[in-house]
Amino acid sequence: MVNKVTRKKHYRPPGQKKEGNAARYVTRSQAVKQLQVSLPVFRKLCIFKGVFPREPKKKVKGNHHTYYHLKDVAFLHHEPLLEKFRDIRAYEKKISKADAKKNKERANFLKEHRPTYVLDRIIRERYPKFIDALRDLDDCLSMVHLFAALPAQERLKVEAKRIHNCRRLSHEWQAFISRTHKLRKVFISVKGIYYQAEVEGQKITWLTPHSLHQALTDDVDLTVILNFMEFYETLLAFVNFHVYHSINLKYPPILDPHLEALAADLYALSRYFDANTRSSLLDSQTSSSSGYGQVDAEENSELRLAQLQQQLSLNEPTALMHLVEDAAAKNEDEDEDEDTRECKKLFKNMKFFLSREVPRESLLFVIPAFGGMVSWEGDGAPFTESDKTITHQIVDRPTQTHKFLTREYVQPQWVFDCVNTRLILPTEDYLVGRVPPPHLSPFVDNEAEGYVPDYAETLNRLKAAAKSEVLPLPGVGKEDLDDPQKLLAEGIIDRAEAIEAAEKKQKMMALEKQYHDELKLELQGVQYSSATSNVDKQSSNQENEGGEDADLPDPEQIAEDNANLPLVVMSRNKKKLYEAMQIGKRRKKGEIDLLKERKRKHKESQKSQ
Amino acid sequence: MKLNLDAESSPQATRPKKKHGRKNSHLKPSKSHAEKQNSDELHLEQEAPTADEAPLQQHLDSASLSDSKEDVSDEFKDLKLSKARESGSADEQDHVNTGSPDNLDQENEDDNPIRDQVDEESDSSEDEVAPRNTIGDVPLEWYRDEKHIGYDISGKKILKKEREDKLQSFLASADDSKSWRKLYDEYNDEVIELSKEEVKQLRRLLKGKAPHADFDPYAPYVDWFKWDDAKHPLSNAPEPKRRFIRSKWEAKKVVQLVRAIRNGHIKFDKPKEEQRFYHLWGDDSSSTEKTAHLSYIPAPKPKFPGHDESYNPSLEYIPTQEEINSYQLMYDEDRPKFIPRRFTSMRSVPAYDNALKDAFERCLDLYLCPRVRKKRINIDPESLKPKLPSRKDLRPYPTTCYLEFRGHKDAVMSISTEANGQWIASGSLDGTVRIWEVETGRCLKVWELGEAVKYVAWNPLPELPILAAAVGVDVLLLNTGFGDGEVQAKVKELLHIDALPATDNSDKTPIATWLQDDKVEGIRLRHFKTVSSVEWHRKGDYLSTVMPAGESRGVVIHQLSRKLTQKIPFKLHGLPVSSIFHPTRSIFFVSTKKNVRVYDLLKQKLMKKLETGLREVSSIAVHPAGDNVIVGSREGKVCWFDMDLSSQPYKILSCHPKDVTNVAFHRSYPLFASCSDDCTAYVFHGMVYSDLTQNPLIRPLEILRGHKATNGRGVMDCKFHPRQPWLFTAGADSVIKLYCH
Questions:
Q1: What domains sit in chain B, N to C, each tagged with a CATH number?
Q2: Which pLDDT band, with edges at 50, 70 and 90, does A574 fall under?
Q3: Which helix (H) or strand (E) segment is B169 a member of?
Q4: For an engineered disulfide with B429, which of A87, A366, B331, B452 has Cβ 3.0 to 4.6 Å away?
Q5: Beta-carbon separation of B315 and A599 below 8 A
Q6: Burial of residue A574, with CB atoms counted within 10 A of its CB: 0-12 exposed, 13-18 middle, 19 or more buried
Q7: SS3 for B452?
């Protein structure tokens, strides 16, 4: 006997286990229920543990739910932090109870002894290797830099302590990048300044806001951001610790309070670097065999720092810095790659001075990263404006009244463009009071995009020229295949030439084609008329002419036909895919056409003026 | 007392008056018990002469009045009477409350100073005054039929008073202006009149105020005890000793704590520990353990900024004002999120407003968005196109227009090639059938038939140069006049009808009648419905005609030699569209709008049903080997059926955007063609292999253009040359074209 029961779509007989997606995925509310936590705690846990919803193939509960994998939920369930959060909740209840009973003493005591938790284990779990942490560092850096520019507001739980911590962390990171010359690209956008560094082969890109105070807006849920910040701060601190130790520096660094007060943290950090590398060189054996306790070492270093400070203030700081750098460079050179070496040399033997109005923090970071020396207007600066050895002064004002003839006055964009092209660009376009040439994004592959802005071409040409000029000088014998720069340069030249040649060729082709077409037209016209004359003599000449146009095989039409013919026998799915791809191509082409159209209009308007 | 005396002095006193007096008497006893006795006695004396029937009762009456009234009022309250009576009950209730007021006392004060004194004494004992009637709280109806209403305090019966009838009482009340303040006390069997003061008090109570006008509810509070200048404490006991010595247990506890502090078990205010950072990753070699849980999908990195996000982009990246305005008309999701702006110097770049919002959205993406690994197809779209054999290898096929046949005045509906390929015939909507020489394009012969020609078909036998043309309801069999005398004689004999065949007796209109047409020297086959197509059998003796409106008789087969007509012995499912004979075997294809049915004519049964899956079939053609069929449809698709393979299409080619009007196979070359209303004809290579395991090879070869659209129609018909790889197309623009290789 067969029972014919009408089954529901997802019917499961009682007592039978769930299978498939229904057993593997739960909705968020189910997960929260299962973990017996509140939603904010669940969110916090997800953020800390890096658990994200997943997309089941079949959404059993409906399309509008978010689904978590049961294994992920179990992963959260076994997290010791979960218990910690429960404890904290109980503790908060104690506080509120004491408050309610007006037991101020107890309430204060409890408030001061709140339980805390640490995230290091979670970081280790999420990023088993340092390189994993580096891979995920983009968002972390952007957020920390953003918070460093936010105003502290206790009301919104944006504490001043946190902001200061963010500032400190971001400066430490920048100091490391700058010191080890790992910065590769810089881009000033409307949203802020993008930096790209290459650490251990990982390209890390982050965004810093323009050095103005950001406004706290109402339309964001700060609790979410603060949860992320909690994690990111810890992560960045550990990363900083790691990278500082990789260059034999103590972490956290002890900074000159004087400089710190002047908000020249970056410079203070760089001084710290210099001092420590030097000292480590001087008494390497003592530091290596240091058997002191923690406190002693700290005191020692502080003492040493103070002494160094004295020396530095007495001596000419630049000389010392050079000395230190040279010494450090010797042992660093071996493990540096080609790129770093190139970056390091870019602003070598150049001295920059920043005027008041230029974005100091950014330039203090960028210029030393590419081997330049920099000073600014204000206290604690390594050298003053009147220093004769300054080669470039960076100004961002309409006019400069007093000018030293020994230096060039350029706009800040010059520095960034130089960095992106890895070339000391001619300064004519960037002089004071001029409208600088367009600032181009170094993240765009112009050729893949299909549109090359004018200034990118100029830069390419400059690059090519520089290579061809510079390279023959070291000696012809050295021009080997193993020099990748040379190859690159040649490639660029070739490319430029090839483009020109291709253009010429295209023009020729077009002319030729036109000629052929005309010929063809003539031929067919003759043939056609002769044929028709045989057939129907009565038909008028005019009609012939009319017929001629329609009858002529249009070459474009033929080409299109040939392209479309295989479509007829393609399967439906493939045809759809093909058409979708064509749509994407067309859109891209449309964008490029729009750019070209605008460019043409601009040129026309300029000509008319 | 005086009042009482006055009232009762006249024996003819009216009832109300009497009541009034009694009421007063009631008030008096309410003041004091002692005085009550007094007054009652007096009352008794006074009333004795008038109320002779029940002097005792009256006496009792006044004695128990006040209490009984209370009871009554309670009862009234419970009953919740109508409004009129409610006011009454309220009155009574208030009356009870007015037990103590001084107003009444004052009223009586001047009467009797002695009683006044007594009054004051007994003021508090007013509640204990026994009611006149002592029956207690029992339903009054128990006494309804009795002569008495109850008992007085001494246990004597209180007799009922005599009743006034209703009319009388009504009249009395109507006369009496004070009747509104009178009410009847059922318990004590008497009528009470309320005084003015009592009414006032009631009114105040109704308003929710205190009954006495003098009463101040908000009088200032006066404390009952003065604390200020108390010299002595409440208790004069000395302080106990225990206040001055410390507790033993507390001392022990303190010692315990002190020891704990000394020994370091208790620590005060540990300095808050800053989080310490250490070499978390140590040396990476140790951290090779694999995480047990699910694979981690890294979040996609944010998009890198392009040239347009620069603070100083090239001019061409900045949209014009019109373009920015046009963004407003776009849908939200299409609208660009970021509009490039240009600043000529770095100092003029403002803070970015959405920085925090962008960061927040990124955070949301990181923890709320489901992550899936997706395969991105990064292929050249050209690689999707199938590898087709080179067209060069598949030559010859028609490519270019070589000749045009002009002469028709209207759309050419149909063309047909002669078996040898020397001539073609064409039928047009202008009512003519023309015969053209293929080589030269010369028009050889014209028949004016007067009606639109739908279809023309040459007899497939070269020795029978007969042309069939479908004209309205007729099919004309025309003698083309080709061939030598012998052939002509044979043709003429075939096209001659000796005599009219005997008319059938059946009532039905015949499907077709054979008529001799002298004008065109042929046979006129008159059908009962419009004929849409004519197809010859390969032997040239039979021809089938299709009448789409003919329903069950829509497809008929005629035999030329015997001048016979028969309908096919099969049921048609749906409207017939076209029919065709198998090129080698006696098999007959009939296509309806949806399907193609294949019949075996010898066995007279259905062989196969080809399910096209198309919306509307328009044409059909059979491969010369007979195993493959192509079907054209009105939705622009061409289906290739391999009949050995399946009844489903082997391949569907959707090549035309408009209706496919006709499809055709070449007789010897592996070519087939389709023509459509979009003014194109496609030529395909369709190779059928004798090896059954190999599927037919289909490859589009050429798109032939040249016809012009007229009235929305394009190419109406296409036919291959029987020998050469040439294609004839007939257009709605009244031109026939010949495409050669």
A1: 2-206 (no CATH), 395-501+508-740 (2.130.10.10)
A2: confident
A3: helix B166-175
A4: B452
A5: yes
A6: middle
A7: coil
Distances (CA, A) of B52 to A296, B3, B56, B148, B157: 129, 21, 9, 16, 16
- At residue B231 the predicted structure's pLDDT band, cuts being 50, 70 and 90, is confident
Q: Using the beta-carbon criterion (under 8 Å), do A535 and B405 form an inter-chain contact?
A: yes
> With contacts defined as CB-CB under 8 Å, which chain A residues touch B280?
120, 123-124, 238, 241-242
The interface predicted TM-score of the complex, written ipTM, equals 0.77
Count the neighbouring beta carbons within 10 Å of the beta carbon of residue B514.
Answer: 18
Which pLDDT score, from 0 to 100, does residue A498 have?
52
Nearest chain B alpha carbon to A53:
B370
What pLDDT, in 10s, does the model give residues B634-672? 988 999 999 888 889 998 998 888 899 999 999 989 999
Interface of A with B in 371-390 (CB under 8 A): none
Please, which residues 368-427 of chain B have a Cβ atom closer than 8 Å to chain A? 368-372, 377, 381, 384-386, 388, 400-407
From the CA of A599, how many Å to the nearest CA of chain B? 5
Residue A454 to residue B401, Cβ atoms within 8 A: no
Mean pLDDT of chain B: 78
Q: In what order do the strands lie in the sheet with A202-208?
A: A183-188, A193-199, A202-208
The answer to whether B359 contacts A146, with C-beta atoms less than 8 Å apart, is yes
- Comparing B294 with B655, which gets the higher pLDDT? B655
Give which of B124, B67, B73 is closest to B100, Cα–Cα: B124
Residue B444: list chain A partners with CB under 8 A: none
pLDDT band of B45, cuts 50, 70, 90: very low
Cβ contact A241:B280 at 8 Å? yes
| Set of chain B residues whose Cβ sits within 8 Å of the Cβ of A75 | 293
Burial of B40 (0-12, 13-18, 19+ CB in 10 A): buried
Name the most confidently modeled range: A11-25, A246-260, A303-317, B256-270: B256-270
Q: Give the residue-averaged pLDDT of B307-324.
A: 89
Whole-angstrom distance, CA of residue A305 vs CA of residue A379: 19
Distance CA B290, CA A491 (A): 44
Q: What is the mean pLDDT of residues B485-505?
A: 73
User: Taking Cα atoms as reference points, which of B576, B575, B556, B558 lies closest to residue B567?
Assistant: B556
CB A593 within 8 A of CB B311: no
Choose among A129, A228, A550: nearest Cβ to B363: A228
Helix (H) or strand (E) holding B466: strand B466-471
- CB atoms under 10 Å from CB of B370, counted, come to 13
CB A390 within 8 A of CB A351: yes
Q: Is A73 in CB contact (< 8 Å) with chain B?
A: no
| Domain A344-486 indexed as CATH 1.20.1600.10 | no
List beta partners, residue B202: none
The one-letter code for the residue type at B196 is K
Mean pLDDT for the stretch of residues A261-276 = 68
CA distances A514 to A505, A518, B187, B610, Å, are 14, 6, 132, 51
Domain positions in chain A are 20-78, 120-283+297-328, 344-486, 566-609
Q: Where are the beta strands (DSSP E) in B593-687?
A: 595-600, 605-611, 617-622, 628-633, 637-642, 651-654, 660-665, 671-676, 681-687
In the predicted structure, residue A184 carries a pLDDT above the cut 50: yes
Measure in Å the smallest separation between the Cα of A502 and chain B Cα atoms.
23
A237-240's contacts with Cβ under 8 Å and 24+ in sequence apart are: A237/A169, A237/B275, A237/B277, A238/A120, A238/A123, A238/A133, A238/B277, A238/B280, A238/B281, A239/A130, A239/A133, A239/A134, A239/A137, A239/A173, A240/A169, A240/A172, A240/A173, A240/A176, A240/B277
Chain B: nearest CA to A283, how far in angstroms?
23
